[in-house]
Amino acid sequence: KLILGFNMSKNKKFLFISILLFNLIFSPKLFSLGIGAQIHAIPAINFTQTSTTNFGAACSIKLDRLPLIFSISTDLNLFNKEVILGLTSDYWLFNPYITNSFKFFIGTGINIETIICSDNFGLEVSPRAILGVNYLLFDGFFELFLQQGVEFGIKNMFLGNNETEYKINLPIELGFRVWQ
């Protein structure tokens, strides 16, 4: 019954939460959100299997006040006949301006993927480091970016021969974000 140290009735709690949500949603100066898409190629150096390259696309979300980027991706590995669904979270350590609209960034993060093929499925977890550039257009409304990553992956397939792969992924990603 105590909210922020105050005893509040149910109606007051509802009003308080409604006002708080209204301010968060309709106050553009509190935070902005960049939503966009990207395409990528992910060549892999595989130490236990044949090295291959995945091709795919992703949707990305970036917060302006916090240097966090999240993406949901889907990839195809034509050599292994795999479909890959991934989640990535990155934290930008630096994002300084080079010119008024051109910036570069360095970051770290993690990539988690579910691998699906005709007779097996698996999981890959990869800590990652990224380096990239982003260019802001239309007074910061539209952002273009290009980034290169290095991921140290461990992939485990659960059925069949229950194989574990150790590899280095080198994703290169090109995309855009629209800021709201």
Describe the protein's architecture and organization.
The chain is built from 1 helix and 11 strands, in the order E-E-H-E-E-E-E-E-E-E-E-E. With 180 residues, it is mostly beta strands. A hairpin with a 4-residue loop joins strand 4 (53-63) and strand 5. The chain is globular, with a radius of gyration of 21 Å.
Entry summary:
The chain has 180 residues and is mainly beta. The protein contains one helix and eleven strands. It is 9% helix and 64% strand.
Primary descriptors:
9-stranded antiparallel beta sheet; single chain; two-stranded antiparallel sheet; mainly beta; 180 residues
Write down the overall geometry: globular
**What pattern of helices and strands is seen along the backbone?**
EEHEEEEEEEEE
Rg for CA atoms = 21 Å
Pick out the low-confidence regions: none
Structural class: mainly beta
Largest sheet, strands/sense/barrel: 9 strands, antiparallel
* Helix-residue proportion: under 10%
Rounded mean pLDDT score = 87
Strand content: over 45%
Number of strands: 11
Separation, N- and C-terminal Cα atoms: 36 Å
Count of discrete alpha- or pi-helical segments spanning 4 or more residues: 1
How are the SSEs ordered, and which strands pair?
Blueprint: E1 2-3, E2 6-7, H1 10-26, E3 33-46, E4 53-63, E5 68-77, E6 82-94, E7 102-117, E8 120-137, E9 142-157, E10 164-169, E11 172-179
Antiparallel strand pairs: 1-2, 3-4, 3-10, 3-11, 4-5, 5-6, 6-7, 7-8, 8-9, 9-10, 9-11
